[in-house]
Amino acid sequence: MLKMKTPKTGKARRELDKRAPKLVETGKKTLILHGTKTSGVLNNVLTQIYQLKKESAVRFSRKNEDVRPFESGGEASLEFFSLKTDCSMFVFGSHSKKRPDNLVIGRTYDHHIYDLVEVGVENFKPLESFSYDKKLAPKAGSKPFIAFIGEGFDSVEELKHLKEVLLDLLRGEVVENLNLAGVDRAYICTAVSPNRVFFTHCALRLKRSGTIVPRMELVEVGPSMDFVVRRHRLPNERLRKEAMKTAKDKAKKKEKNVSKDVIEGKIGKVYIPDQKVGEMALPNKAKGVKRERREAKLRHGEGNKHASKRQKEDSQ
């Protein structure tokens, strides 16, 4: 029998409540970690991805020898780190002669590996290499636009999968309403070839257009790089169906005495009980009530007089 540990403090209980499944999930956290060997370019790439997602990311600075995606037995440590940090996405960087400057972006379901995409990084340009007005720099935690340009994202299987993963990685928390003034950045992904994607990060500058909708200009602020798709692994069908399940909407409570009409719309019936006018309590200051009381007193007084006369006659 496995021993079940229950939280003993309020802080532990609140932390478990945050990690519990919800009907409407919050934004996904991203785990960023290194492999056994990395390069200077790859370290810079991981650092700048962490800066772009600083509010919703956890970064491990040490090397991890046991983490080997796409290999049997090499994913156990990755799943353990995902459970420990409560991260449902990860970016793993490694460097080797066969696969230089290698990035593995993956998602987890119930803290088990869901799918994986492996890309190589080429033509990397860091943030520092771009010159622009620092007032235009995007603010941390702002909502981005994400644009995917090219037919490959709809026709090539590898690029379609990469599009799904990048959307989850970059979009943050899903919201229904958005203030245009708070949107100050855009991620542009362009499919250059069936296995190469150009990625760049731009700031949005709003200018007057003479209408309600402002004119937008893009200012490249970095980083920018080329993603070369190497390997990818889709989730199996059973796991996909389980992960795509959504909570059923609660059945609406039936409204009584309500019907709908095409012309009149919603029609309701209102039932009013019978008005018992005779039993209604009238105010004491009503003139009619006072008159009735005076007449009742007079009648009552006359009845007492007649009764007293009869008693006297009987006594005589």
From TrEMBL:
GO molecular function: rRNA binding
PROSITE patterns: BRIX (PS50833)
Similarity section: Belongs to the RPF2 family.
Alphabetized Pfam families for the sequence: Brix
Gene Ontology biological process: maturation of LSU-rRNA from tricistronic rRNA transcript (SSU-rRNA, 5.8S rRNA, LSU-rRNA); ribosomal large subunit assembly
Compartments (UniProt record): Nucleus, Nucleolus
Main location, first listed in the record: nucleus
Protein name as it appears in the record: Ribosome production factor 2 homolog
Domain annotation Brix: ranges: 28-238
TM region(s), chain numbering: none
Annotated stretches, region: Disordered: 281-316
InterPro entries linked to this entry: Brix, Rpf2
Keywords per UniProt: Nucleus
Domain of life of the organism encoding this protein: Eukaryota
Basic and acidic residues: bias regions: 292-316
Stretches assigned to coiled coil: none
Gene Ontology CC annotation, any one: nucleolus
SMART domains: Brix
